[in-house]
Design a protein that fits this description.
Length: 149
């Protein structure tokens, strides 16, 4: 059955900030794989989630290059394609005691755990060393979905 043990429901995946920025800014050499992850979410082959706290980060980063109006339209599209994963006191409390070098990664990981997601897809899997949750690169997720029956 492949990497994921679900038969009837798509796997629930937190899409890390770097994947969405790759798509928004057409960043090579990452664009094609990152776009495929977003497309999987759009086609409901995965249940894509974005951390609520990620939206402000995305706005800040993308707006510098693409401008306010384009960025808001892009984020509206992402909010229609993906579910918004709750960031609340429980997530923040977990992140504050997590042993991550980067606090943003601690928030992402805690968001995925508290929202009971199956995996995080990121280009920076080394930022999640020791995670109890499945951490996948875009290529690994693409291969798992292609190879699953």
């Amino acid at each position: 059955m492949g990497v994921f043990e679900r038969e009837t429901q798509p796997v629930k995946v937190l899409i890390d900030t770097n994947i969405i920025v790759d798509v928004a800014l057409d960043r090579d050499p990452f664009f094609a794989q990152s776009e495929q992850i977003v497309r999987f979410a759009e086609l409901k082959q995965i249940e894509g989630y974005i951390s609520a706290s990620t939206f402000s980060d995305l706005y800040y980063v993308i707006r510098k290059t693409k401008g306010k109006d384009w960025t808001l339209q892009f984020l509206q599209q992402m909010a229609m394609i993906c579910q918004i994963a709750t960031v609340d006191q429980t997530v923040v409390s977990m992140a504050l005691i997590a042993n991550f070098k980067d606090f943003e990664d601690a928030i992402q990981y805690s968001t995925a755990v508290i929202n009971q997601l199956d995996a995080i897809v990121t280009r920076n899997s080394q930022d999640f060393v020791g995670a109890a949750l499945q951490i996948m690169t875009p290529d690994a997720l693409i291969q798992a979905l292609i190879n699953s029956p």
